[in-house]
Amino acid sequence: MGRIPTSVVAASGLVGGYGVARWTKQRPLGGVALAAAGAVAARQWAQSSGAGKAAALSGLYVAAFAGSHPLAKKVGAWPSVFAVAGGVALASWAVERKG
Description:
The chain has 99 residues and is mostly helical. The chain has one domain. Helices cover 90% and strands 0% of the residues. It has helices at residues 6-24, 27-49, 51-75, 77-98. Helix 3 runs antiparallel to helix 4 (77-98). The longest helix has 25 residues, at 51-75. The chain is globular. The protein starts with 5 loop residues before the first helix and ends with a helix. The mean pLDDT is 96.
């Protein structure tokens, strides 16, 4: 069985982290899910694209998480989370595609 594409791992971390926090009402649990997926994604980015691109994509992952909060005030929580997750997934796919 092949590995899960990093774009899917990263997007799932953002969506899953929010979902876990919301449904359990335990923000730290959502943070654990977010961080775990982020760590897996960072490792895969480093393997596929090198340390520099992994650092840039990891920064984007964190920025997307942070940016989803003010965006949520304008468009709602779930639309915001899906928008930033899609952006990170697209960036991940584009970087890994080029190697």
